[in-house]
Design goal:
This protein is an alpha+beta fold and 202 residues long. The protein folds into two domains: 1-80; 88-201, Alpha-Beta Plaits, CATH 3.30.70. 51% of the residues lie in helices and 23% in strands. It contains three helices and five strands. It has helices spanning 5-80, 88-102, 143-155, and strands at residues 107-111, 115-117, 127-140, 160-170, 184-197. The N and C termini lie far apart (102 Å).
């Protein structure tokens, strides 16, 4: 088909408009694809950041739980008087009170000098464990007296009482054989353990 010059002049404007619209459409498609890629990357980064934030929150919650547990242990140790320097005066008061309350006929003891003891691996560097060994010699009416003595000693606090060994021997009955005379004698070695946190002093 042949177009006349007049017809070509009439078609020039619509053809130009069509070319411009095609170019604009192509540019719009390219721009839209670019924006879509940018938004997809941003969405991916946001998801990664949200995952990291969730992991951080989980870690913080776990650390908070561990701190609360450790604080509870620390509070309990503090309440029992296990933390800090050894309390020899309180130990002596406890022994006197137990002897009086239990009406023990003969209770003798001596406490050795404090010594450092090995502790579990992984402990904080500022925490040290110490023990003073108490040698106890007491007369008993029956074996239950020893169990009651050890239970009272543990309840008295001011240290962690670790019984290393106890032995019981039968006493020979003297003349007259009084009904309430001690029949047994016990000797025990008990470690009085205290914990010192050097960092807590600063």
């Amino acid at each position: 088909m042949n177009f006349t010059a007049r017809e070509l002049r009439l078609l020039a404007l619509p053809l130009l408009a069509c070319i411009v619209l095609l170019a604009a459409g192509s540019a719009l498609i390219t721009w839209t694809q670019g924006r879509r890629a940018v938004e997809a990357r941003a969405l991916g980064e946001a998801r990664v950041e949200r995952l990291r934030a969730r992991e951080r929150l989980t870690r913080i919650a776990e650390e908070e739980r561990e701190v609360k547990e450790k604080l509870e242990v620390y509070r309990r140790l503090k309440q029992l008087g296990i933390l800090g320097e050894e309390r020899r005066l309180e130990w002596a008061d406890a022994m006197t009170r137990i002897r009086t309350d239990r009406e023990l006929p003969d209770l003798r003891y001596r406490v050795e000098r404090q010594r450092s003891i090995a502790s579990v691996p992984g402990k904080p560097g500022s925490v040290d464990f110490y023990a003073s060994t108490m040698h106890v010699d007491l007369a008993l009416l029956h074996e239950g007296d020893l169990m009651n003595f050890l239970a009272d000693l543990r309840r008295s606090g001011n240290a962690y009482y670790s019984v290393r060994q106890c032995s019981i021997s039968r006493l020979s009955q003297g003349s007259g054989g009084a009904g309430l005379a001690p029949r047994l004698r016990a000797t025990c070695e008990i470690d009085l353990i205290t914990i010192i946190d050097r960092a807590a002093k600063t």
